[in-house]
Amino acid sequence: MYDVPRTAVLILGTGGTIAGVAESPDQHTGYRAAALSVEQLVAAVPALKDYDLETRQVAQVDSKDMSFAIWTELHREISAALKDGQLDGIVVTHGTDTLEETAYFLARTLMTAKPVVLTAAMRPASALSADGPQNLLDAVRVAADPLAAGVRVCVHGEVFPGHAVRKRHPYALNAFTSSRAANATVEVGFYTTPAGLPEPLRFDPDLPWPWVEIVGNHAGQDARTVDALVSAGVRGLVLAATGNGTLSEALLDAVRRAQRSGVEVVVVSRCAEGHIVGQPDHGLPVLGVTAVQARVELLLLIRWKASIARAPA
User: Fold this and answer.
1) How far apart are CA 276 and CA 293, in angstroms?
2) Which letter, b or e, does each residue of 264-289 get, where b requires 16 or more Cβ atoms within 10 Å of its Cβ?
């Protein structure tokens, strides 16, 4: 007989509700997020003993406080770990509030044939019916599956592509959805391939992060918000347009002025479902993602252009 090597998975902790603690077991709100270490989360799931696990605490925050500095460190940790030939996959524990932004960031900047799986929880670890332990176990199982290559999000028994997931509900256990639907379930396995992404954007951790804001079109929208942001030095604007990409004339005039001053602009629909079809009359660049994902895309695009500009001829 010979020993079959156990699957090796790295778990990176960043805090969130999955590591949260409340004063009583029946308390699902008003808890303290990011109270438990990633080692404590692993210790609470006996079935994880079947895997060869390594844990590292990258950050310990409520994800509403997720920062560019944490993103940069997380990218460094994952990039270094992916070079380890003995490692099968990576799991990142995260809060739910900004998970879709972190997942999109990683999906657009990592080129990996190994699984990188983000997971989270809607209830704190102290809850009677905490969802974190099962989500963590599921995420490790997905990270151990070579078919899960790329950045994924695993929550509530479903697996979503990292670039196409969003939080749809503030407290339901099945709080996440995707414009492309789940591309797997943990019990059944992978049965579809997510729509392809463009080549990952080069990520230089030493470049400064630009200032990019989201501006919505709505009744009574005028030029003041955009004009004020441009005057203050904003580098990029995501326009959450009404309907199929429409913008008020006053807002559009302000956006044209912003473009002439060098501000990068992209347009998305503010609708909860669907995306902009065709090219709106204004001719501005359109993305078929959520506003917060478009903001990440624009952040990375501006950084990428800066890296090209400073590269030696």
Assistant:
1) 15
2) bbbbbbbeeeeebeeebebebebbeb
Domain ends where: 190, 224, 249?
Answer: 190
Q: Which helix (H) or strand (E) holds 266?
A: strand 264-269
Using one digit for the tens of pLDDT, what is the confidence trace for 55-92?
Answer: 999 999 999 999 999 999 999 999 999 999 999 999 99
The Cα 146–Cα 148 span in angstroms is 5
| Helical segments of the chain, H only | 38-43, 68-81, 99-109, 132-143, 224-232, 249-260, 291-310
pLDDT band at 312 (very low <50, low <70, confident <90, very high): low
* Angle in degrees, CA 167, 168, 169, rounded to 5: 100
Give the other-Cβ count within 10 Å of 165's Cβ: 28
Structural contact between residues 152 and 115, judged by C-beta atoms closer than 8 angstroms: yes
Give the β-pairing of 158-161 and 150-155: antiparallel
Catalytic residue among 17, 96, 102, 290: 17
- Among the residue ranges 100-109, 126-135, 192-201, 284-293, the one predicted with the least confidence is 192-201
Inter-CA distances, 214 with 64, 105, 115, 289, 302, Å: 17, 17, 31, 13, 15
In a domain, 270, yes or no: yes
CB neighbour class for 242 (10 Å; exposed up to 12, middle 13-18, buried from 19): middle
Place of tokens 């079935």: 47
One domain, residues 133 and 238: no
Tens digit of pLDDT for each residue in 154-206? 999 999 999 999 999 999 999 999 876 556 667 655 544 444 566 788 899 99
Q: Are residues 186 and 216 in the same domain?
A: no
Domain of residue 19, residue span:
8-190
Helices (H), 51-98: 68-81
Whether residue 177 lies in the annotated active site: no
pLDDT digit string (tens) for 219-238?
Answer: 999 999 999 999 999 999 99
Helix (H/G/I), strand (E/B), else coil: 274: coil
Task: Tell me the whole-structure pTM to 2 decimals.
Answer: 0.92
